[in-house]
Amino acid sequence: MKLDKALVEQFERGLSPQHLESSTIKANLIGFGEISSIFELEAVPGVVFKRMPMFSNPQQAHAYLEKYTTYCSLLSEAGVHLPEDSAIIVERSPDLTVLYFAQQKFHPDSIGNKVVDLLTEKEIRQLAEKIFGAIYGVWAFNKQSKDVELAIDSQLSNWVFDKQTGSLFYLDTTTPLFKLNGAEQLDPELLLTSAPSFGRAIIRKFFLQDVMDRYYDEHSVNVDLIANLYKEQKPALIPLFIEVANRFSSREITQKEIAAYYREDKFIWQLFLRLRKTDRWLHEYIYRKQYQFILPEKINR
Ligand SMILES: Nc1ncnc2c1ncn2[C@@H]1O[C@H](COP(=O)(O)OP(=O)(O)O)[C@@H](O)[C@H]1O
Ligand SMILES: [Mg+2]
C-alpha cells in the first residue's frame, strides 16, 4: 500500500485531537480504541488510519512498528487473513512521536458487529464457525511452534466478513500481543500511556496483567468474545455463540459465567474511561497541555 507521507505529516502537525473539525486536512473519525483513534482522510479514500500518540521518541515508534510487523506475519502464518496495510512515523515534537497505521478500508456493513444485522441465523452460525475456526487456528499454531505464542482479541468488532465472498479478515492488529520464548514482546508501559498518570499505579497493580493475559487464554478469549455481545446490544446471539464455542472448546462455557464476566469487564472499562476523562480535564484546565487521545462521549454497554 503506497501512501503520501507528506500529507499524513501535514495532517499530524495541524491536528488538535479534541477539535478534529478544525483540521486543515479534512478527516472523519471512524472508531475509538482504548489507545488508537481511527480516522479516514478525505484526500485518501479507501484507507483508514489508526493514530497512536504514545511514543516519546522515534526509536520507540520504530521498535513498536517492528513488533507489529512480526505479529502480523505470525498471525498470517497461523492462517488469519489480514487487511493490506502500511505505516508512517511522524516526529511531532522533541518528546512526542506519533505512529500511524494504515489499512485498506472495509465497508462499515461488513464489520462483525454490523454484519450480523444483515445475516440470517444460518449465516450467523457460519460466521461464528469461521471466527472460532480462525481463533483455534491461532491456538493450533501456538501449540506447534516452540518459541512463539500469539494472543488475539476476538471480539466481533475486530472481524470483517465479506458476505459475497464469504471471506473473513481480522482488523485489530495494532496492539501486537505475543511472546517469544515466553517473554512478552509488547512493553505494557506503552499501553499505560493512554491511562492518566494518577491512575497508572492502580491499573498496573490490579488490571494490566489480567487484561493482557486473557488474550492468550483459550477459555478467556471465548468468554470475552461472547460477553462482548452484551456491549454490542446483541444478547439474543449469546446462546448461538455459546453453542458454537462449546463445539470447539474443551471447557464448557455457560450463560451464567458470561453474565458474571460481563459485569466485571463493564466495571473495569467504565472506570478506565472515567479516569481518562478526568485526565483530559486536568490537561485542559490545570496542566494546560494538549491531550492526545480522543475519547468517546458515552459508550452504551
Ligand atoms: N480497516 C478498517 N476498515 C473499516 N473500519 C475499520 C477498520 N479498522 C478499524 N475499523 C473500525 O474501527 C473499530 C476499531 O478498530 P480496531 O482496529 O479494532 O481498534 P481497537 O484496538 O481500538 O479496538 C473497528 O471495530 C471498526 O469498526
Ligand atoms: Mg477492536
Summed up:
By secondary structure, this protein is of the alpha+beta class. The chain contains 9 helices and 10 strands. Bound molecules: adenosine-5'-diphosphate and magnesium ion.
What would you note in describing this structure?
The chain has 301 residues and is of the alpha+beta class. It has a domain at 108-287. The protein has helices at residues 5-14, 58-77, 112-115, 121-144, 188-192, 200-214, 218-231, 238-248, 255-287; strands at residues 27-32, 37-41, 47-55, 85-93, 96-104, 148-150, 159-161, 168-170, 178-180, 183-184. It has a 5-stranded antiparallel beta sheet. A hairpin with a 5-residue loop joins β2 and β3. α4 packs parallel to α8. The longest helix has 33 residues, at 255-287. The protein is globular and about 50 Å long. It starts with a helix and ends in a 14-residue tail after the last helix. The mean pLDDT is 93. Bound molecules: adenosine-5'-diphosphate and magnesium ion (MG).
| Spatial ordering of strands, largest sheet | 1-2-3-5-4
Q: How is the biggest beta sheet arranged?
A: 5 strands, antiparallel
Helical content band: 40-55%
Shape descriptor:
globular
Order of helices and strands: HEEEHEEHHEEEEEHHHHH
**Strand residue percentage:** 15-25%
List low-confidence stretches.
none
Q: Please identify the oligomeric state.
A: single chain
Strand tally: 10
Q: Please tell me the overall pLDDT.
A: 93
Ends: how far apart?
A: 36 Å
Separate helix tally: 9
